[in-house]
Amino acid sequence: MTKLSVNINKIATLRNARGHNRPDLLQAARDCERFGAEGITVHPRPDERHVRYQDVRDLKQVVTTELNVEGNPTPDFLDLVREVRPEQVTLVPDAPDAITSNAGWDTIKHQVYLIGVVQELKALGCRVSIFLDPDPAMVKAAVATGTDRIELYTEAYASNYAADPAAALAPYRQAAELAQELGLGLNAGHDLDLENLAYLHQNLPGLAEVSIGHALICDALYLGLENTIQLYRRQLL
Q: What are the beta bridge partners of residue 153?
């Protein structure tokens, strides 16, 4: 069964808008787990515009499923991971001023760098996932880094799903099948929602985990957090 990891960045954004602790990010993480989430994802950025570095430290103390920390492995990010040692670290090559993640790694160009980072993170006891576009060359090169998993960047799938689901999924299925052949675990995330998630899950072999934040939190405004998490989990049955 594919696990649902709930990204709570948007809850932190709402909290930060008023400068207090409402909503309480730690309680939100506890509630997401209580409502059925099988993991909590956060993506702290250097400007701390949503999840802060201290939040990650605090979340490590309360998350009982799996804490997945995403980010560009800058020196500050790596220092945080060394301290917190989350269950999973997802390496994302986003620029400091990126609104959201918008591209996967070039695992050929940055292979030597990624090898060193992956080795250190695995030595800390973290499972490592590398954020990738559905490009067979990038999947093949990811193997040499020693990563445990790859996370397919699904924005293109989500953008093209309404016009032609099969065509939108095709490159992702090819990448997923190749990952299975090469012994890589498979995650996916970005712009997944209640309309496109079930089709992805049904047609992407070996999908271990999806991390979903923006759409899920938007749906929760209308449907309630508990109901929304259950609805997303049903797409993964």
A: 189
